[in-house]
Design goal:
Blueprint: H1 5-11, E1 14-19, E2 34-35, E3 38-39, H2 40-48, E4 56-59, H3 63-71, H4 91-103, E5 110-114, H5 123-136, E6 140-146, E7 155-156, E8 164-165, E9 184-194, H6 195-199, E10 209-213, H7 225-234
Parallel strand pairs: 1-4, 1-5, 6-10
Antiparallel strand pairs: 2-3, 5-9, 6-9, 7-8
Length: 236
């Protein structure tokens, strides 16, 4: 890496948070569900502890998740309110509330948010994202991965007799290599946001946002039981 985390934090104070609600709409107790011998949230804690960042916090409403966090020396002082622990709670609302709480105690320059639903994300990914953020002097950054399916092949399954393309112009093309769009998706693994942006309740800078491209193999974002089964096999 061009910059080490130790060198970067001399010029920019980074804090890290892991957002992990106790409830889950798709899978019951998703964040503490076991993959092998570890609960889902532990994979993120383990990689975060490999990074030289002093201030690491868990943002959760779950006592069980806090117990796990303590085993990994993740700070559990912040109390995540119930009204910010719902299925429809936005990330920026959660981060903004934490930021206000943290700024009453200390100061920071940028915040790194990691979600437990990306258990294949590794130390290298976090460091690469931080280095890009620092080098390019971005206000915000998120990790992305090349789309597994081409967006112009997306269909709306209205019935079993006809194909309805989400993008109407899809009928003009037949081969993937004919498409001109170089499609990526936000994989949810890493977000880095400057304090000033969070104060405005913004996750993304419209003028100065960066991307870190992660390999497909590490970009799975667990949402349902099939994702868990796929991840179990990848981690063997």
């Amino acid at each position: 890496y061009k910059y080490s985390i130790k060198k970067i934090i001399k010029f920019m104070k980074l804090i890290a948070i892991v957002t992990a609600r106790g409830g889950s709409k798709t899978i019951k107790n998703k964040n503490i569900k076991k993959i092998g011998k570890k609960s889902l949230v532990e994979f993120t804690f383990k990689e975060l502890n490999k990074i030289f960042i002093k201030d690491k916090y868990i943002l959760t409403d779950s006592k069980e998740i806090k117990k796990i966090a303590k085993r990994y020396s993740i700070n559990t002082d912040y109390v995540r309110p119930k009204n910010l622990s719902k299925d429809n709670t936005s990330s920026i609302d959660t981060i903004s509330h934490f930021s206000d709480w943290y700024l009453k105690r200390s100061n920071y320059d940028a915040l790194i948010m990691l979600q437990p639903t990306s258990p294949l994300r590794i130390k290298k990914d976090i460091l690469n994202a931080v280095n890009i953020f620092k080098k390019k002097k971005y206000q915000s950054l998120c990790s992305i991965s090349k789309s597994l399916e081409h967006p112009y092949e997306t269909i709306d399954l209205k019935n079993t007799n006809k194909i309805y393309y989400v993008f109407k112009e899809s009928y003009k093309y037949y081969r993937k290599q004919d498409y001109k769009i170089n499609s990526y998706f936000i994989n949810g693994a890493i977000y880095i946001v400057k304090k000033e942006l969070i104060k405005k309740k913004q996750m993304y800078s419209k003028k100065n946002h960066g991307f870190y491209i992660m390999p497909k193999i590490r970009s799975i974002d667990l949402d349902d039981i099939e994702d868990f089964e796929i991840t179990k096999k990848l981690l063997k």
